[in-house]
Amino acid sequence: MTAAPPVGARRPSRRTRTTALVAVAVLPLLLALTGPLIAPHTVDTPVTAPFAAAAGDAWLGGDQLGRDVLTRVLHGGTLLILGALLVAVVTTVAAMLIGCLAVLRPTLGRTVERSADVAILLPPLLGIMLIALAWPGGGRWAVITAAIVLGTPYAVRVVAAAASPLATAGYVEAALGRGESTAHIALREILPNLRATLLTLFGLRFVEGVYVISMAGFLQIGPQPPASDWSLMVRENASGILLNPWAVIAPSLAIALLAITVNLVTLSLAPDTTAKAVTRP
Fold first, then answer.
1. At what angle do helices 14-38 and 246-269 cross, to 10 degrees?
2. I need a labelling partner for 204 at 20 to 30 A (CA). Which of 6, 54, 64, 183 fits?
3. CA–CA separation, 201 vs 157, rounded Å?
4. How confident is the model over 206-237, as pLDDT tens digits?
5. Three-state DSSP class for residue 46
6. H or E segment to which residue 232 belongs
């Protein structure tokens, strides 16, 4: 018989791990959203020589015009976060509503499946370029619209696949026997059992929104110079990466950290649906 581990050696609970992870993840989010308030310099004012190395007044050096890299990094995340958040919210809500209804209406389900097949085959970059060409003055809104249009069919298919087994559950059949409406069954019987799927999907859609908006910014589809944007900073300063690497590394790390932390938080907040292992004493 194996002795039980001492109380102090037990692993931290799921709630403790989740709280710690959320606290860690909130810090870069708050820093990105409040960055303009704590930036040391004016965003468009040159303070060093072009591509100057890190120095006293410019902790991350200067960019291609001598502007403070740290200041532009602190200014460059707000619109990206808000845009990715809008993409994630709209896509997840649309997937939630349409996906739950699709499993109860076969015609709608087939339409969703065909639309998802087409959306998956269309490269995101091509979709962004098509919408940008059709909406020349759209800027960042055109990119956000492209991310929503391209991401919604796939997200709906994911929700429909997760809801499909629930459509034949006993409580759903009982609701059908009582004569409940399709909307009632979808929103009151099926949707509450999809919390883990929806939280995970929200995190993935947020990361996808960051990826799409950043890729468009790198290609100068959306934000234009002299706007302070992380992806635009990578493009503008790529030619001087050997002179001041931080002008490229700092915004790149900011994008990666934002995507990773948000995804980890949504995964940790999702209900644990795995069966607990039975241990013998």
1. 140
2. 183
3. 11
4. 888 888 888 888 877 877 777 888 888 998 89
5. strand
6. helix 230-237
